[in-house]
Amino acid sequence: MDLRVFFQKVKEVESAIPEDPTVVVSEETPDGGRAGARTEVSRALAARLLVEGRARLATAEETAGYKAAQDAFRQKAAEQALAGKVMISVVPQPVKEPKKPAKD
């Protein structure tokens, strides 16, 4: 394939992608690529993957499911990070002054 034609197709596809970043779903490829993996990528990378036939744009349902899973993952990570912190409270106590010896 001519490189000019390839990059022209990439530009055309990139201009047709509605949002940036966008979610793509991988396709099975002869070099071992697995189908069904969802990934959020930039518009430019999504266009290149589409032209190469390595991925397709995710449907609205797939995108919503992906974003919900990512939000749940972030929430769980934040909770684990908070649980790993040790919280210490310093409570000041009044200082007792030593007793002075009695004068004879």
Strand content: 5-15%
Oligomeric composition of the shown chains? single chain
- Low-pLDDT ranges: none
Q: Please write the string of helix (H) and strand (E) elements.
A: HEEHEH
Short recap of the structure:
This protein has 104 residues and is α+β, with helices and mostly antiparallel strands. 46% of the residues lie in helices and 12% in strands.
How would you summarize the topology of this molecule?
Elements: H1 3-16, E1 22-26, E2 38-41, H2 43-52, E3 55-57, H3 60-83
Antiparallel strand pairs: 1-2, 1-3
Please describe the structure with a list of short key phrases separated by commas or semicolons.
3 helices, 46% helix, 3 strands, alpha+beta
Tell me about this structure.
With 104 residues, the chain is of the alpha+beta class. It has three helices and three strands. It has helices at residues 3-16, 43-52, 60-83; strands at 22-26, 38-41, 55-57. The protein has a three-stranded antiparallel beta sheet, sandwiched between helices. The protein is rod-shaped. The model has no long low-confidence stretch (mean pLDDT 88).
